[in-house]
Amino acid sequence: MKRAAAVVLAALTLVAVSGCVTRPSRVTSYYTLDYLHDSEHTELRQDTPFSASVHVLDTRIARAYSRPQIVLRGIGPSFVYLPDHLWGIDLSETVANLVQRRIRAHRMFEQTTREFTREEFDYELRSSIGSIEYVVFGGTRLATLEIELSLIRMSDETEVVRHQVRSESAIQADDVSVFVAEANRLLLAEIDAFLSKTLAYLTTGDLIRDDYDPDVPDDIEMPVAEGRTEGVGELLLPSLGPSQNQPFYTIRSLDRDDERSALFGVPIALPAGRYAVNLGSGPADLQMSLDNVEIVSRRRTVVEPSWSALTVDIVDTTRRPVRLRYDIYDAETGESYGGLLSSSETIVAARRVWILAPGRYKIVLNSRPFGTLEDFVTVTLAAGRSEELTVVVGLDEAGAATALRGAGNIDADDSGDPDAALSLSSAVNASFSLALDDQQGRRELSTLLVLDSEVETELTYEIFPLRYEMRNLLAVGLSAADGAPLRVTSDRFRLRNTLIYELTAVYGLYTRLDADTTLIGERLLFDDPTSYVKRHGEAEVERETDADMIRLSPPLMPLTLREGAGLSVQALRMPRFDLGLRGGLGATQTVRLQTYEPAGEEVLEGTVYSVYERGASVTDIGLEFSAFATVTPPWNTTITSTAEVFVPFREAGVVSFVWENAINVVLANNVSLLYRFSLEDAPEAEDRLVIQEHGLFLRLNYLFR
Q1: With contact defined as beta carbons under 8 Å apart, do 699 and 672 qualify?
Q2: From CA 422, how far away is CA 83, in angstroms rounded?
Q3: DSSP for 612-665, written as a single string
């Protein structure tokens, strides 16, 4: 029976996971360029064509754009081909045909042809496209076209008209078909601009080049070929030191009233122009500035680091983090850059990155003054380099730091550096209470002992662009009344697995598999003998009279599984506040093998029985949405909050939610006070209950090395 149950459980899990990862069928779209009769300018049409002939050659297309796939480009030299969006035409022939049709519509030449014949022509029209791109970057979407058209007089091989331009126009929707329509408009507008120059040449006989502005009559509304938007580029200040906690810097425009903040190592989109950048740790008068940083349209400006980065870890001789204040001074002038309490929690989450000018600095422990000759260490910082300083201190019997033992740079493989791919930490939480009651003065002492314990483990493994996170919680509650042996009153096992593929610093794709269950199942203990009956539908499974215990579920039951896949967004990232959002397709399964639930009472053969009905397993598929927030206010406190909403597709399904919060206050080295608070919807209950859970624990945190 156990083997069959395991097979059924594995099959249900496999079906659910495969349902989450099934790919929709791909649809390939094809695009063309149209002539657009309504864009003709009849005022340019000649009543009598000029007595000349012109041969329109095929358009030369730059090699990168001669493939069927439409080109998508962002900042910088790289681009991608869109595999599902293809030109359904030969651009070389189509563009030349559009030029020929435009010339004929304007009746400029007596003869216009695309065919090769033995007849000699008066002119030859040559054209080339250097680029035709769908550009998306920094919230900006553009259609861009680089085109050159020239008219060659064949009698002496002279270029008499030339029109060369790079044109771009903003588009209002992130849609390839909108891009194609706008590129189509730009192309015809540039052809018309070229033909207006050709008309001027045929009229005057003067050579017309790119700087010529044709004198078009006022009643003719020529198209605006270059529908340019204000240029947008990107600025990147490279990150130095651990990437998890990079600080912010300030950008101030020198051309307009605009100031904003950005994160080291994360590109930020800015309007083209000149900017001043303020960066660095410490007071404003000690910070660094970069003057006249120029942002060029559609280019990424990468600033060569003229600054340095410093991180300070304080540990004991067993390499456990020690919470101790340190201050940073300029070793030459004695100017203070400020101080900080080192982290005694997970180093990755609280490690401070100091941005400083190259030079020599003095790090002083225990709030001692700059001139102290005890508990200090010096470090020299070089431009573009990051120093990771580890300070080792001794501890007395009470766990307080005594004196500096050593300092230097310890290799990541030897120190368990959180910048390594694998990070693993764990914590033990315990809550204890003892209640004494003298039965309201009757001198009968009653005791109640309650012990709740938890073991939390967190594992992170990161190799860009993949990041795997595993979190599990094992909780056991014990109680004893009036000297009776300890009994297990609650147990819970929770597992969270998430895999993220980072597309950018903000966006990524995620997939997850979570599980919630109990380790020993559920039992009911009766103070007085009780009769009960278990049923599965109409069938009676078990009946017993005068029982002192009934088992409602076996180990690992009921089991709740959750799977999901979708889009992950780092919505906000501020020095003391992080907000992440996720949304996508999700599935849940509640497996209740051999699980029974109360279903009232019933009289059988003159005896009152408590009835327990076999629970049914439930599977739902729907949409899931999650929000994750981390707040780090002062006072050695960290607040984390997670909210999850599941919307099932089935009509009978009910929207459910879970909201979990944790407030952790550090008391001493590796010891903190943890308060948990959660709200969970119980949609299957008759009265639609909202379950509240509160817990206050003393927490001991430690890192695996």
Answers
A1: yes
A2: 36
A3: EEEPPPEEEEEEEEEEEEEE--TTTEEEEEEEEEEEESSTT---EEEEEEEEEE
DSSP state of 40: -
CB 385 within 8 A of CB 308: yes
H or E element in which residue 243 lies? none
The rounded distance, in Å, linking the Cα atoms of 7 and 365 is 60
Tokens of 76: 């910088």
User: At 268, which amino acid appears?
Assistant: I
Q: How many CB atoms lie within 10 A of CB 291?
A: 9
Q: Specify the 3-state DSSP secondary structure of 588.
A: strand
Residue type, 21: V
Strand pairing report for 69-73 and 507-517 = unpaired
Contact 555, 520 (CB under 8 A): yes
The tens digit of pLDDT for each residue in 669-689 reads: 667 888 989 988 766 555 667
Which pLDDT band, with edges at 50, 70 and 90, does 478 fall under? Answer: confident
The CA distance from 91 to 71, in Å, is: 13
Task: Provide the sign of the torsion angle of the four alpha carbons 369, 370, 372, 375, taken in this order.
Answer: positive
Q: What is the pLDDT of residue 627?
A: 94
Q: What is the pLDDT of residue 296?
A: 83
Q: Is 602 helix (H, G, I), strand (E, B) or coil?
A: strand
Q: Can you point out the beta strands (E) in 342-400?
A: 354-356, 359-365, 376-381, 386-395
Strand spans (E) along 316-445: 325-330, 336-341, 354-356, 359-365, 376-381, 386-395, 401-408, 422-437
Beta strands at 607-614 and 522-536: parallel, antiparallel or unpaired: parallel
Q: Is the peptide bond before 49 cis (omega within 30 degrees of 0)?
A: no
pTM over 0.85: no
Sign for the pseudo-dihedral over CA of 334, 338, 341, 345: negative
DSSP code per residue over 491-542: EEEEEEEEEEEESSSSEEEEEEEEEEE-SS-EEEEEEEEEEEEEEETTEEEE
Scanning 86-175, the segments in alpha helix (DSSP H) are 91-106
Determine the residue type at 170.
A
169 burial level (CB within 10 Å; 0-12, 13-18, 19+): buried
Partners of 664 in beta bridges? 638, 674
- How many whole angstroms separate alpha carbon 215 and alpha carbon 76? 38
Q: Which of 328, 384, 333 is nearest to 354 (CA)?
A: 328
| Backbone angles phi and psi of 408, in degrees to 5 | 160, -170
**Tens digit of each residue's pLDDT (9 = 90 or more) over 382-415:** 998 988 898 888 877 666 677 788 887 764 433 3
In whole angstroms, give the CA distance from residue 246 to residue 225.
44
264 in Cβ contact with 239 (< 8 Å): yes
Q: What is the Rg, in whole angstroms, of the alpha carbon atoms belonging to the chain?
A: 37
Q: What is the pLDDT of residue 688?
A: 62
CA distances from residue 525 to 488, 528, 548 in whole angstroms, order as listed: 11, 9, 6
Give the DSSP H/E element, type plus range, for residue 181: helix 176-204
